[in-house]
Each structure stands twice: as structure tokens, then as C-alpha cells.
Specification:
Amino acid/polyamine transporter I, 528 residues, mainly alpha, single chain
């Protein structure tokens, strides 16, 4: 009897979700299987403090050090929460997979809605591709360091994989992510909840175990007040150093928009999506600060900061790996425990990348459903399991391409390098930038332009002065796809030149649709 009542309630909620999505201009195509917990889990897994803090701990140490990391965490967190609260309220009114670009269209007014939605959508989708590439390449680099330490370390003749091997790790990881994301959404729900538990337990284990095992620990004064001004970039302004040090915190506290992108697969989406956004940020702020404190207390002092950032240590300059390794080696005579700790982090990073592909594919699905991408009819298709399969593999492919190793960089013996191994994490200001040559002052040498720039740069934006954006239409929703217009005949595939022309035009008028609805009310009508 109870089961029947629960089933009936779930059915009513599902019907309400379908009806609300229809009001927003879309037909239900994805399977609504995710609970509020599953929705939260995906955002929390993407925020993953084990991923963000571990990946950019070098940046935090180099720019400001302990003071910037421990106190700056709440500076970045306060701004992130303010944005998250605003996004959660809007998500409650417009729970669609499009998320930010759809909201931009609804909030920017009829005149600017097409331009706002198009530019927001492309910034969002390219940023997601880069974020997915960054997370998975960071995991590939972490595996590189784990192999190095397991085989004897930098000072013990350990094996340091070349950049091509690292890229192979990266591609293999993304291949596995694409395969898993091709499974029904019920599997993604399971992996998301498992990843949440892993992240929570992993943070508590590491924040307690590492400082307890370490034979030398930093004082509270050092952890909360020491401000490191010695950096490889030659920057001396304390304010600028502090701002750069915030990159660690800000890089970690991103990705919570995933709860919005998953709303078309979430039950009671108008409530579950906002809860997922707010709770993912709030819990990450708490456990993330604990993780930073625990690891930083294992940094013995100012001299230790310089050593951790040095490419001559056992981890080749990967600071947090060296902290783990030295803590266990100092206590037990070997660093095996530190390598196990790195393994815990690696699993968390893997799940972070997995959820990133999930969120990214839903954004591609929504954006192409509105006709805002080349070959949109291909990318918004779903398979029999109601998974946007083509969008999943496009996300993985582009993220692989973004990490293609260039020729002639330090570390491969090509282009004037002396053949010595370049330590990828020694002093990178941002993930994925490993191996870049340091900037040096000097004149900029402009290259001759192949042809005169033309097109969008000379046009005034706004108003009705411009050609239609993609095919025709004004704002996302009520799109002209056959899913809402069964009697409409599909258009034949267009030549490449036409596709490019319409993408150029897409700066002004927005994703296509043909059905018309009343003008948008100035009131959002946000629901709880």
C-alpha cells in the first residue's frame, strides 16, 4: 500500500515535470531517473575538493602560500555561494538542460535575448570542454607522479613518463568516461552517489592521516598567517599574488551548474536542481577547508615550501604528492602510504572527470536541440536508453584534442631542450599548462594577416539590423525541431559554407524556433 502511494506520488511529480518542460518549449526526451541526492552527487563530484585542491596546490603555495589558501578559500567561497544562490533561484523557475544560456535568454529582454543566449551558450560549452580536458589531464599527470614515486622517485632513478605517455593516459581515461556515460542514467546515478561517498571519506581520511603521520608539523601561526611572496613569476605585489593564489580555490569551486544541466533527468526538478547547487557548494566549502588545513599542517615551514616546489624533490615538483610521500617516509622509512593516499585522490579525480563528461554532454544536447551548433540534428539525438550518445562522444573527443601535446616544448628533447625531464607540476599557474616556456620581457613580433578580417567585428550588436542567427527565430525553447512539430518536414543537410554563415550570424538573433508564444513577462515568477 505504501509502495502504491509512493509510486502514485512519483508519477504525479513526473507528470508535473513533463508539463513544466513543455511550458518552457521542450519535449521530454531524456529519462527522469535521478533523485535529489543523485542530482547533488553529480555537482558535488565535479566540485571535488580532492581534485581541485590537489591539482592546484602548487599554485596556492607559490602565490601567497598557507595564508592565501586557508583564508582565501572563504573569499572565493563567499562569492561562489552568492552566485550559486542566484543560479538556484533561477533554476527553480526554468529547470532545463540548457541552464545558463536558456536563463540568459529569458532574463535579458526580447531585444537582447538571442545574442545573450548564443554567447552564453558558447562560452559555457567551450569552458566545459576545457574543464573536462583539464580534469582528465590532471589525472594523467597524477598517474605519472604515482608511477614515478612507485619506481623509486625522482632521486632514486624512478620512471618519469614522457608527455606522449601522459597524453595516452589522458585519452584512455576519456575513452572509459565516454563508455560509462553511454550507459543508462541509472548507472550514472549509482556512480555519482558512490563518488560522493568516496570524496567525503577520502577528505576525512587524508585530512586526519597525513598530519598525524607526519613527524614534523607546522604551527597554527604558520598555517594561518604565513604569506609567501617568493614565486617563479617575479611578481612582488602582494595584492596580485593573493589574487593569483585564489585560483586554487576558484578552480575547485566550479561545476555546480551541473545540477541545472541534469534537471531534465531529475525528479521534481524545480526543487531538486536548486538544492543540488546550494548543497554542493556549501558542503564543499566545509570539507575543502578541512582538507587544506590537514595538508598544510604537514608542511613544516618556510624552507619546506621552497623544497616542495623544487623540481629536485622525489615527486619532481608535485608539491602535494611530496607532502604525502615525506610524511609516511619520515615515519615508516618508506613512502608507500603516501602513494596509497595519492591513489585515493586519483579515484576522486577520475569520478570528477566522469561527471564532467556527463554535464558537458547534456549541455551539448540542449544547445544543439535549439539549433545553436553545427550539425545540431546529430548532436541532440538520443538512443534507446534515452542517452544523448552522440553528445557524449563529441564531448570526450574534443576534450582529448584539447590536450594534444605540442612539438618543441621542454621535456621532450625537441626544439632546443637539453633532454632533461621537465617536471610538469613544478610551477604551473593553471592545470593543463605544463611544459610551457616561461614568459620573458621583449618586443611582440606580429605576424602578417593572411587576409583582412571580415564579418562580425564590423557589425553593431543588438536590435533588428542583422541577419537571422542560425536558421531563424528569437530565443531558445519552442524550437522548430520535429519533436514539437511532428508534421514538419526535416530540412536537407546544408553545405559547409551555409553552416559557417549561420554560425557567424548567430551573434544576434538566437537559436531557431517557429512556434510563437506570448511576450515574456517582466516578472520571473520564480517558484520554490
Amino acid at each position: 500500500m505504501t509502495w502504491n502511494k509512493n509510486s502514485a506520488a512519483a508519477g504525479v511529480a513526473s507528470d508535473a515535470d513533463h508539463a513544466r518542460l513543455r511550458e518552457l518549449g521542450y519535449k521530454q526526451e531524456l529519462r527522469r531517473h535521478l533523485s535529489a541526492l543523485s542530482n547533488f552527487s553529480i555537482s558535488f563530484t565535479i566540485l571535488s575538493v580532492l581534485t581541485g585542491v590537489t591539482t592546484l596546490y602548487n599554485t596556492g603555495l607559490a602565490f601567497g602560500g598557507p595564508a592565501t589558501m586557508t583564508l582565501g578559500w572563504f573569499v572565493a567561497g563567499a562569492f561562489t555561494m552568492a552566485i550559486g544562490l542566484s543560479m538556484a533561484e533561477i533554476c527553480s523557475a526554468f529547470p532545463t538542460s540548457g541552464g545558463l544560456y536558456y536563463w540568459s535568454a529569458r532574463l535579458s529582454g526580447e531585444r537582447w535575448a538571442p545574442f545573450a543566449s548564443w554567447i552564453t551558450g558558447w562560452f559555457n560549452i567551450v569552458g566545459q570542454w576545457a574543464g573536462t580536458a583539464s580534469v582528465n589531464f590532471s589525472l594523467a599527470q597524477l598517474i605519472q607522479v604515482i608511477v614515478l614515486l612507485s619506481s623509486g622517485g625522482n632521486n632514486g632513478g624512478g620512471y618519469f613518463a614522457s608527455k606522449y605517455v601522459v597524453f595516452a593516459f589522458h585519452a584512455g581515461i576519456l575513452l572509459s568516461h565516454a563508455i560509462i556515460n553511454s550507459l543508462p542514467v541509472a548507472w550514472l546515478s549509482f556512480f555519482g552517489q558512490f563518488a560522493t561517498a568516496w570524496n567525503m571519506l577520502g577528505v576525512f581520511v587524508l585530512m586526519i592521516a597525513v598530519p598525524v603521520v607526519a613527524t614534523e608539523r607546522a604551527s597554527a601561526r604558520f598555517v594561518f598567517t604565513h604569506f609567501n611572496t617568493e614565486n617563479h613569476a617575479g611578481i612582488h605585489s602582494k595584492l596580485y599574488i593573493f589574487v593569483l593564489g585564489l585560483l586554487m580555490s576558484q578552480y575547485t569551486l566550479t561545476g555546480y551548474d551541473a545540477s541545472a544541466h541534469m534537471t531534465e533527468e531529475t525528479k521534481d526538478a524545480g526543487r531538486s536542481g536548486p538544492i543540488g547547487i546550494i548543497s554542493a557548494i556549501g558542503i564543499s566549502l566545509i570539507v575543502g577547508w578541512g582538507y587544506i588545513l590537514g595538508i598544510t599542517f604537514a608542511v613544516a615551514g618556510k624552507q619546506d615550501v621552497a623544497y616542495l616546489l623544487s623540481t629536485d624533490n622525489d615527486a619532481g615538483g608535485y608539491a602535494i604528492a611530496e607532502v604525502f610521500y615525506l610524511a609516511f617516509k619520515g615515519r615508516y622509512g618508506n613512502g608507500a602510504g603516501g602513494i596509497i593516499c595519492l591513489g585515493i585522490v586519483a579515484v576522486a579525480v577520475y569520478f570528477c572527470g566522469l561527471s564532467s563528461v556527463t554535464s558537458n554532454s547534456r549541455m551539448i544536447y540542449a544547445f544543439s536541440r535549439d539549433g545553436a551548433m553545427p550539425l545540431s540534428s546529430v548532436w541532440h539525438k538520443v538512443n534507446e536508453q534515452q542517452v544523448p550518445i552522440n553528445a557524449v562522444w563529441l564531448s570526450a573527443f574534443i576534450s582529448v584534442c584539447m590536450a594534444l601535446p605540442p612539438r618543441g616544448v621542454p621535456g621532450d628533447g625537441v626544439g632546443g631542450d637539453d633532454g632533461r625531464v621537465h617536471r610538469l607540476r613544478a610551477a604551473d599557474p593553471a592545470p593543463g599548462d605544463a611544459g610551457a616556456r616561461p614568459l620573458r620581457p621583449g618586443p611582440v613580433q606580429p605576424r602578417p594577416a593572411a587576409r583582412r578580417a571580415r564579418g562580425l567585428g564590423r557589425r553593431r550588436l543588438g536590435g533588428g539590423r542583422h541577419r537571422p542567427l542560425l536558421a531563424a527565430g528569437v530565443v531558445p525553447g519552442d524550437q522548430g525541431h520535429p519533436q514539437l512539430h511532428p508534421g514538419r518536414r526535416r530540412r536537407a543537410a546544408r553545405a559547409r559554407a551555409v553552416v559557417v554563415a549561420r554560425q557567424r550570424a548567430a551573434l544576434v538573433q538566437g537559436p531557431r524556433h517557429e512556434s510563437r508564444r506570448p511576450a515574456l513577462s517582466p516578472s520571473l515568477g520564480l517558484n520554490g
